[in-house]
Amino acid sequence: MPPLTHALAHGLGTPARNIVALSLVCLLLGASTTALGHGDVTPQEVDTKGLPDLGEAPLMENPFRPGNQHDDYHELAVQVGESGYGGNCAVCHGIQAMSGGLTPDLRKLEEWDDEYYLQRVSNGTERGMPAFRENLDQTAMWAIKTYIESVTP
Ligand code: HEC
């Protein structure tokens, strides 16, 4: 190949590749925006200020439930949980945890489901429940559980 043609081919090759790469990026971006846009499930941070840091090791029971280890924080946990629930769960599980029937009614969870609850919220499920372990710490998850219990008849 004469050097000029070579340079041209080369010079042309790069932008063409860039365009392919760019459209790929656009595709990916488009896809993720759609995923986030769907039902507005962008996780909202939960401000747990004032509540004890429960650490990493998963507790087996809601520590804020009356009679449990941190029940003196019960009121605050309900408040923190209410906003945490509103920002992260209500879109799918309903206002005040009243399910419209398409998702499980979280008010039906029993005390002995605590371990299951934490595990579900952390890991999500393959059938439409997102995992929250990257966005909510254990303190926030139990605060949300405490709120759900407070609106359970
Ligand atoms: C995008 C919708 C969506 C969001 C947001 C969501 N969930 Fe779910 N959740 C589901 C679906 C769908 C299921 C049922 C999944 C299945 O059966 O595998 C479920 C199941 C659960 C379960 C298991 C209940 C049972 O009876 O088996 C718990 C606990 C739960 N969600 C808690 C939460 C909490 C707490 C939040 C907020 C931090 C939340 N979810 C946010 C859709 C969602």
From TrEMBL:
Gene3D superfamilies: Cytochrome c-like domain. Residues 1-37 form the signal peptide. Residues 76-152 form the Cytochrome c domain. The keyword Repressor does not apply. Pfam families: Cytochrome_CBB3. One of its GO terms (molecular function) is electron transfer activity. Keywords: Heme, Iron, Metal-binding, Signal. InterPro entries: c550_proteobact, Cyt_c-like_dom, Cyt_c-like_dom_sf. This is Cytochrome c-550 PedF. It comes from Billgrantia montanilacus. The lineage of its organism: Bacteria, Pseudomonadati, Pseudomonadota, Gammaproteobacteria, Oceanospirillales.
